[in-house]
Amino acid sequence: MRISRNPRRAVAAGAVLAVLLPLSACGDGDDGGGSTDASGKVEGEITFQTWNLKANFKSYFEGVVDGFEKKYPGTKVRWIDQPGEGYADKISADAAAGTLPDVVNVSPDLVAPLAKAGLALDLDKSASKYEKEYLPGAWKSHQIPGMDGTYAFPWYLNTGPLFYNKRLFKDAGLDENKPPTTYDALFDDALELADKSDGKVATLANVPTIEDFGRYGVPLMNKEGTGFTFNDAKGVELLTKYKKLYDAKALDGQALTATPESTGKKFLTEAVAMNPGSALDLEKFKKDAPRLYKNIGITPQISSTGKDNMYVMGVMVNTKTKQTPAAVAFAHYVTDAQRQMEFAKKVAIFPSTEGSLDDPYFTKQDGKDETRVRVAAAKSIKTAVNYTPVLFSEQMKVELRNSVAKALQGKQSPKEALDNAVKNCDRLLQQS
Amino acid sequence: MKSTTASQAAPTDISTTGTARKEPRPAGRGPRRGIRRQLPTSPWLFAAPGLAIVGIFILYPFLSTLNNAFTDKRTLIEGDYVGFANFQELWHDEMFWIGLRNSTLYVLGVVPALVVLPLLLAMLVQKHIPGITFFRSAFYTPVVASIVVVGLIWVWMLDERGLVNALLEAVGVGKAGFLSDQWLLLLSAMTVTVWKGLGYYMIIYLAALANVPRELHEAAAVDGAGAVRRFFSVTVPAVRSTMVLVAALSSVAAFKVFSEVYLMAGPTGGPAGEDTTLVMLVQRVGTGLTGRVGYASAISVVVFVVTVALMLLVLRADRKEDA
């Protein structure tokens, strides 16, 4: 090998190498990937990533990891947890860099782009034998329109009732024991509450989201999954009603810029009369807002379809894993009936495994509010639907939200606003 | 002739070919020759770590962004070259123009305040009186406070049920939609930026004021100039170059504003996205699993061009003043 005897050149070459060599590691990280065959021996080291669960459930997950390693000697699971904030960004950075963990906690909308990029293992091919263990709806929740296959094990489900403030209802002359159960009743009560409180108390604090359109009975996407349809007559009807609420101050004045956190705070401080929540929130009300807790009313979600909205969590296997059998076995182990039941008893979530919801824990009342919420939610979850289309990305949510805001402010008619939202979401869908 | 050529070429020979090493060392010139031999290499060696860092963390991302701006790259998909298609799309993108408008308004609203107010503040705390250190520290505190904490505190204060609205209601003015009205929201964010930046620029002005000769003030005072006249005739000319520096720094920072608006207007950028700034738009369209990296890069290129133009504009104005 000829080495330059010119020191300037040598140093310059060294500097260039120093710059370029690390960059050469910044490629797509595609190192070949692993096999999609999960039938081999379960062994080797895998990484498992959860979504903001370490703070409250460290011992539970350590137990799960220990249990798996004991069941399959020769395996080693490295558990990592990421904060809730910016989770999608973290996954996208890992996916782009080729450092995505072997087993990843995801939601359906996160799975869709990963599956399209060939990073989520198709369980219908690699682990179809486990399908019968899960509720059919939950298994389907990680299927992607336009693609064949199922791309994550269903994990825990969540749903919840509507909470309302009995005192605010009573002060407005409404019957605090008869909360609205239909959309018409909700809009009527909201207008009356705003009128009686001179616009000081709003009933709702959030603009309608894609789930609200779904729950109202608006068709969200065409059957092929190639275009959005929430600008139909029913969608326009819902937005027109919300516009009426906004004008009457029955929808909080800051709803156009609200986040779920700020909405929750509004309800906690009794600035709004109703808010969706889960059994988890009852504990929070008891601790942070005792006055609200004394007046808390609980009523089922309002839905025109007869089906509540539910949120779905999943566990996917990275196609690039070098330990496919171990990764698939672990993803199944975390989400099997026994582990899901154990997890459900630690936190107010619902298992997605067949038969688990028949456990007395989800069917027997004991007089406590928490139990009442849990039993009612468990009953509704059997028929509940995840109304958020898996192809509805964050950018699309912003498009819808901005269009809704324009309609509520009167800058565009509800029809015009929804047409624009659909047009923009379709464009994003084609670009994805 | 031959010997002349050889002597002219000597320095190069010493450092490149090594031929000179074979020549007998002239008496008494050894150490100097040694230094001359090391000179060309050692600066590069010293600079190498810095160059590597600049290359990896500044040059490469910059060139990569420039390259991506001409592609339809997405987060998980490499994409193809699309020429100027992203820039053509920008031209027709309503949100881009909203972002450009808001970023420009931010510069126009924030920069004059950040050029003038910190100077006045610096003059106030320049005096050596008992307890002045406390005030200097107090005015500097927002600079070191986390922007997230600052943002949250202001959001609480400006909320519909916050302190400011409670005060306005108490004096009979009525509530204002600081966090829900498009223009008030932008104004609120500008206020936070100015409030947080005051202390930083105050320190820069304090250093500049310390260099203004006291004799000038004394001479002006003897000539009968009052405080206001002395300010415009002595202080301002003396710190003019610092004012230009502050204008340049604050205009670039204001054009690239993100945190204040994001924290106060929410991730959607205010009602219907009307308070979105260009950098917020970059973040919104370019991140996440379905992020349009190519398109976001094109917006970044526009931000880069405008900030360079802003700098040149301010420096050119300064040069004109000098002329």
Automatic annotation (TrEMBL), chain A:
Residues 1-27 form the signal peptide. InterPro entries: SBP (IPR006059). Keywords: Signal, Transport. The keyword Translocase does not apply. GO terms for cellular component: ATP-binding cassette (ABC) transporter complex, substrate-binding subunit-containing. It comes from the Bacteria. One of its GO terms (biological process) is maltodextrin transmembrane transport. GO terms for molecular function: maltose binding. Belongs to the bacterial solute-binding protein 1 family. This is ABC transporter substrate-binding protein.
